[in-house]
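lol ok so funny story. i was supposed to be doing the assay writeup but got distracted and ended up predicting the structure for this chain instead. priorities right. anyway since i did it might as well share w the group, maybe its usefull for someone
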Amino acid sequence: MSSSHPVVDPGPEPHPTAGSAPDHGYLLDNARAEAGERFTWLAELFDGVTRGHFDRLGVGPGWRCWEVGAGGPGIPEALATAVGPTGHVLATDLDPAWLDPHGGYEVRRHDIVADPPPQPGTFDLVHARLVLLHVPDRVRALATMAAALRPGGWLVVEDADTELQPLACLDEVGPAQRRANRLRRAVRELLTRRGADLRFGRTLPRALRAAGLVDVTAAGCFPIGGLACDRLEAATVRMVRGELLAAGLADDVEIDAHLAAVEAGELDLTLAPLISAWGRRPG
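and the output, tada:
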């Protein structure tokens, strides 16, 4: 999973097809070639937002930080710079292949649900972005992250919420925009079939309080248009093309036409709002 992980679009509460069990395999797998491109554009869209939250919480020299489901190197590198040589940054992922083992932070393979927290009770900051919406047992994952905090330490969780804004193109003025919105709904359907909770963003403040945290606060970010949105859309659609075709949710002609419209810059694409919430372990 990834810090990295608004998918083309996060959407409604999971409701797998009647009579079928959900496939909990991660749709946007780090092993796919497009993953690195997605991480690049997710970083362009959201790393500044995330760093702003870290600055607000005072992340600085000497802090011990754990980046959960890091995906790409952007946030671990930023944290390593912020904490300096007296601090420590641990970056974990189910598949840490896109992380740099020589990047000034520790890299470790870790399953946030199945594995115990590393060094429990010791971290000043634990952060996860676009991770938990893909994790079926989100309560357990949050408990693992909260248990890793020292008293007074901060947990920052960021996830998307598509039902707050479900469209790829807000201004649906023609066939290209309508096609983009149809494909956005198709990708959402694939994600819900995998067990993703694409309304999870709105629940974050309540979820952090339920995990025992205090001083809980939240904010939202809603990118609209520009090169990063275009490139992220194209990489994600290419990444899930096979699944869209296999599920009968789109055909080659429709996908090719959409990718051509994105490449031509004809669409003002947007994403679901990213909800960021943070809370402190009581001291």
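The chain has one domain: 35-280. The two ends are 31 Å apart (CA to CA).
back to the writeup now i swear
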